[in-house]
Amino acid sequence: MVGRCDPIDQGHIRDRTLEAMGAKALVRKVARESVAERWGIRPGDRLLSLNGNRLRDVFDYQLLIQEPELELLMQRDGNLITLHILKEESQDLGIEFENSLFDGVKKCNSNCLFCFVDQMPNGLRRTLYFKDDDYRLSFLHGNFITLNNLTEEEAERIVKFRISPLYVSLHSTSPQVRSFLMGTSRTEHGLRMLQYLDCQGVSTNIQIVLCPGINDGTVLESTLADLLFKYNHINTVGIVPVARGNHFHGHPRIVNCTPEKAGELIETVERWQQAFRAKRGRNTVFAADEFFMLARKPFPERTYYDHFEQLENGIGLCRLFMDEAEAYLEKMLSQARIGGGAEKRAKMTIRAPSLPLLIVTGIAAKPVLSEVLQKVLSIYQMDVELLAVPNSSLGPRITVTGLLFGKDIIEALSSSDCAKRVVLLPDIIFNSYGRTLDGMSLHELKENTGLSIRVVRSEGKAFVQSIPGRNTVGGKRDHDLSLESDTGKTATMVKSKEEIAHVCHQH
């Protein structure tokens, strides 16, 4: 490999030029023994241009580094450096960036009547008040976008790079209903963009936030019929209930779903699953877990959810959690034998050495965890309690665990008799920097409660293993505790460097 590093007099390039060249490509990590490490690139450097091209995002970067000859313009400690590198064609440089987008995030300019971001109280993490509508984050992280602000140039780039699948907030195929719900006249543009992308082979995962009396009933029937008969590349359709919390100040027609409405929706989805199966060979449309909780109906079997493509939208999480836990328990039980190695499966009781436990969860997840816990305690002889924490910050109708505030947890722990118990917290209450919605770290939770607290990954197998203390991550640094980001998407949703490179290789 041949390379050259030339410093440039910064006086030749003004600060505004740096801004114009996209100086936000901040290097976060450099792989060991990589091309980048060998040529002195290090964390904290900024990549300003590659072969003279401004970089908008990781797509531009991955496309351009396929070339065997590269010229990188870097900024380090206020100085400019050029690197001239020869490498193998398609060889990766080994750079990871702080952010995937170098030119900023496109902001949503819709005014959805039910927007949950608008319901956030004051004093939370700054990023929680930002509403993005960027197609790149849709592909990379599974963020739902409206397409209302998508330009023709961006649509062409999606098609050119085959950036697929995208996650789209649709709510209705009726322009009038969609405009009313989204508070903008640009919803017809979004529908046209959806049709264009579908015609070009871009697949989409659709979200419908169900607002009783507005986009349910005949409106929903019409929407699902349109998606079945007028589009060819709709991958999934996830229907989730609208959430109206304590800080809702929107339109009075926005009301929460009732158990009766939830039951009706479940029946509607099952009927349309039959239609989608007949035409496309898969169920395609799904009801969120919360509908089954509201209607007090059992969760469907795995086959209901196809490939669980909308897990991050709260669709199939409970079924997957229970199945993972059940599979692990079955594996353990199958190892227990009676009578000198006989093949007969038997229940065994293990006295685990752990201290008494208190497992923290949200209101919605308590029945699921209770069912799994009963099976776990049939194997492990332990003292374990569940504590379902009400969401006093956002309101009693907000029952999911991932939206619990640190102060909600502190309040619940202070009012319960748990002084001698080890507290297990689910990792989904923390973001990727180890902070709760109201900015508390694990360390601060420990200090405020004076309790021994461990963090458990929110997976069925991990939950079972955590009971005897075999799978907790409380010993890690606070900012390593969770895989969730401020977008609400876990790391399983984030596209890997290889997946992004594959997109660019197709081009």
From TrEMBL:
<feature type="domain" description="PDZ">
    <location>
        <begin position="27"/>
        <end position="69"/>
    </location>
</feature>
<feature type="domain" description="Putative radical SAM N-terminal">
    <location>
        <begin position="87"/>
        <end position="237"/>
    </location>
</feature>
<dbReference type="Pfam" id="PF17820">
    <property type="entry name" value="PDZ_6"/>
</dbReference>
<dbReference type="InterPro" id="IPR007549">
    <property type="entry name" value="DUF512"/>
</dbReference>
<dbReference type="Pfam" id="PF04459">
    <property type="entry name" value="DUF512"/>
</dbReference>
<dbReference type="InterPro" id="IPR013785">
    <property type="entry name" value="Aldolase_TIM"/>
</dbReference>
<dbReference type="InterPro" id="IPR036034">
    <property type="entry name" value="PDZ_sf"/>
</dbReference>
<feature type="domain" description="DUF512">
    <location>
        <begin position="240"/>
        <end position="457"/>
    </location>
</feature>
<dbReference type="InterPro" id="IPR058240">
    <property type="entry name" value="rSAM_sf"/>
</dbReference>
<dbReference type="InterPro" id="IPR041489">
    <property type="entry name" value="PDZ_6"/>
</dbReference>
<dbReference type="Pfam" id="PF19238">
    <property type="entry name" value="Radical_SAM_2"/>
</dbReference>
<protein>
    <recommendedName>
        <fullName>PDZ domain-containing protein</fullName>
    </recommendedName>
</protein>
<dbReference type="InterPro" id="IPR045375">
    <property type="entry name" value="Put_radical_SAM-like_N"/>
</dbReference>
